[in-house]
Write the structure tokens for this entry.
Amino acid sequence: MTEGRREEVRRGIHIRILRESSGALLPSRATPGSAGLDLRAAIPAPIPIAPGKRHLVGTGIALDIRDPGIVGVVASRSGLSLKHGVRVAQGVGVIDSDYHGEIGVILANDGDQTYTVEPGERIAQLLFLSVLPVDLIPVADFGESTARGAGGFGHTGSS
């Protein structure tokens, strides 16, 4: 993709953002090639998270996505998870297109030491993905099955 085409794609979608608190920092990319925008903790004081515990950390921002064909996704930062065992608790967070409240990140500490979230710290990353609208059609059975059928959870072997 050429540089001009890349800029054209980036200009294609506009999402309004609101600072819910004065200390909120807008999400930003760490590098030009970063897929996600870093979300930062908008907290007045450090928050300790003990091993095995979770805490909801505010970002101080809200989004106006509006397009039901777009979803905001909150994902863990790999370095925070690897170095400290701190991750987005539910795997990924979903920001629906019609949600206008503050984005909160539920952080879980899987490590063996208390981790302290500092004000302004990068705590997660924000991605925007397309949503494929699907209509579910109830049926009595699928008729002809695939070769795999209902096999799952390692049925083809462990490696």
